[in-house]
Amino acid sequence: MVGLELVVLLGVAVLVSSVLGRRLRIAPPLLLLASGVLLGFIPSLRDIHLPGEVVLLLFLPALLYWESLTTSLREIRANLRGIVLMSTGLVVATAGAVAATAHALGMPWGPAWVLGAAVAPTDATAVGVFARSLPRRPTTVLRAESLINDGTALVIYGVAVGVTMGDVELTALTISGLLALAYGGGVLAGIVTAWLAIQVRRRLDDRMLENVVSVLTPFSAFLLAELVHASGVLAVVVCGLILSQAGPRLVRADTRQQSQAFWSLSTFLLNGSLFVLVGLELQSAVRGVTAGDLIDALIAVGLVTAVVVAVRFAFLFSTTYLIRLIDRRPQQRLRRVSNRSRVVSGLAGFRGAVSLAAALAIPAVDEQGLPFPQRNLIIFIVSGVIVVTLVVQGLLLRRVVTWARLPRDTSVDEEREFAERSATEEALAAIPEVASGLGIDSEVVDRLRGEYEEHLRVLQARGDDVDDEQALRQDEQYTALRLALLGRKRATIVRLRDERRIDDTVLRQVQSKLDIEEVRLSRRDLDE
After folding, report:
1. What is the distance, to the nearest Å, from the Cα of residue 246 to the centroid of all Cα atoms in its chain?
2. What is the dihedral of CA 410, 316, 377, 102, to 10 degrees?
């Protein structure tokens, strides 16, 4: 029954924390962490531990896949140099600095590097939640960094664990080979999985089966990469980015609508549950450290967190001015951002799922049956760093964003208006040719042309071309009237069902069409 209790408690914690977060204007991850800590006081939950393999093999592929599907590939290409530097150089620098700090505190070099590798990568889901208020460019860079840097960190982590257990010989050739295999194999696994997914989906004509393929895709990419000892994280990200480009041409509207609903809900629940489990694991980590060592462990958490943040800020500023010194091209100057914006990016380096998974995946014993050195202390420090970065930086980020006075990013709205207007204009111009090819009656053509012309006037009124308040007002009235009439339609079919004049199956079929129309009108009303 503990499993069922945990599922219910996780769901309640996610629901309550999300509702309170919106009402109190507190980032939900902070309340989710607090919920996990409180759940840790329940005696029946104290023995529950989150295996690192569950995070890596269940949570991570799904979360990373959805993040990569909803990330702008165009912005990644435009900021590729900075993303690569942050996801490789910064990870190595952070791991090394943390390892040196831990060694100075008395930890052997092997476990110290394990600790450094565990806390080096940022968390994609946390960044996605906390950085929503940022302009598109910094948000994309932060998300892309957190999607890719996991691969670098996990390679360092694997080498450090292997060296500590005596399984791996530490040489430059070994590390270079592992990095090449992780990145090259991960990219290739992602490409192969994406190609297979596209071929399978082209041959299916059932939205349910197509979405089964969608669910299997990230786990297949991760598995394929793991089979060749490559980066499963990178495989999922590459696969998701490829499918984000192929999807609009490949996936039908009804399939896409169902898929988006599924992934939005499932990743929301997985993400929320993961934050609760991090808080729950913190309780276990505290109990794993003896009372005499608790003060030293807390000091270590503070020092490691300070090092992680300091290295990130130092790297951001030093590489920026180094690039400016080397690259003086005019287009490079146009892409410069203010130091205040750089402070915001430095503060957005949250730690989360991958760090926790790496810490929990540390072997309990080595090949000789001896305990892994200071495993409990590493888990405690990693858990503490995750909590401190999420809580302290999460609370500070909103104030720092206000202080930074970042320019309002209207590019997305402008591009959306341009896309809608262009699509409507070209469709309007194509009506005679398409109608002639389909043999459509002239009355139907005139009716559709009138609807398109009215829609185009509304789009122009929203933009800068035409100041037509009457068109906007009439469109708002039209939307309100349509929504009110849809409510009457829905009430009618429910009454007919209650009177047993139609079956529940018929009700669901008609209701589905009404729901689609209502969602379309509601979204249009919100956009305005």
Report:
1. 20
2. -170
Give the dihedral sign, CA 454/458/460/461.
positive
> What pLDDT, in 10s, does the model give residues 132-183?
778 888 888 888 888 888 888 888 888 888 888 876 666 667 777 877 888 8
Residue of 266, 265, 260 whose CA lies nearest to 248: 260
CA-CA distance, 341 to 317, in Å (whole number)? Answer: 11
Quick one: pLDDT band at residue 2, thresholds 50, 70, 90?
Answer: low
CA distance 352 to 276: 11
Report in angstroms the alpha-carbon separations of 367 from 161, 162, 243, 377. Answer: 12, 10, 42, 20
Burial label for 482, CB within 10 Å (0-12, 13-18, 19+), is: middle
Q: What is the DSSP letter of 500?
A: T
CB 68 within 8 A of CB 283: no
CA 217, CA 414: separation in Å to the nearest integer? 33
Cα distance from N-terminal residue to C-terminal residue, the chain: 49
Rounded to 10°, the helix 394-404/339-347 angle is 170
Each as own residue / partner, the long-range contacts of residues 459-462 (CB below 8 Å, 24 or more positions apart, any chain) are: 459/417, 459/420, 459/421, 459/424, 460/421, 462/417, 462/528
Do 274 and 355 meet the contact criterion of CB atoms below 8 Å apart?
no
* Whole-angstrom distance, CA of residue 330 vs CA of residue 301: 44
- The 3 state secondary structure assigned to 100-137 is HHHHHCCCCHHHHHHHHHHHCCCCHHHHHHHCCCCCHH
Q: How far apart are alpha carbons 73 and 445 in whole angstroms? A: 38
CA distances to 214, 262, 513 from 208, in Å:
10, 11, 18
Q: Answer yes or no: are the C-beta atoms of 222 and 235 closer than 8 Å.
A: yes
pTM: 0.84
State pLDDT tens for residues 60-100. Answer: 899 889 989 888 888 888 888 888 899 889 999 999 999 99
